Amino acid sequence: MRVIVSTHQGVLYDEEVEYFVVHDQEDGEYAVLKDHVPVISVLEFGYVKLVSGKKEIYVSIISGIVEYHDNVATILVQEAESGNDLESAKRNLEAARKERLERNRKETTDFTQKERELREHIRNSGAGQLWF
Buried (b) or exposed (e) across 6-43, using 16+ Cβ within 10 A? Predict the structure, then answer.
């Protein structure tokens, strides 16, 4: 079966697996094997464990949905990061969130500074004043 994990930034994972396990802190967990009945569920905070042979990949997730039918699982999430084990996936997600928040803070600070400079330039240029 195929599993696709996507965020608004693009596809994080798109591969064939033997089965996957969905775990949500609120609702518990369930496993999906090939030819499982169709499923749609909501995830708040949790992870998806993807298993193919002896290989396991964990995807730590914040806010999303899981939709499974015809042996294709589509997992659309707000934020996600993968790792070789659950702890590394959680660390990767936390690091990505911190980086994004710092980048947003800096962009907001830069925007505020540029706005101040623009107001100052408009005031100094006399733009918008009528001369008689």
Answer: bbeeeebbeeebebbebbbeeeeeeebeeebeeeeeeb
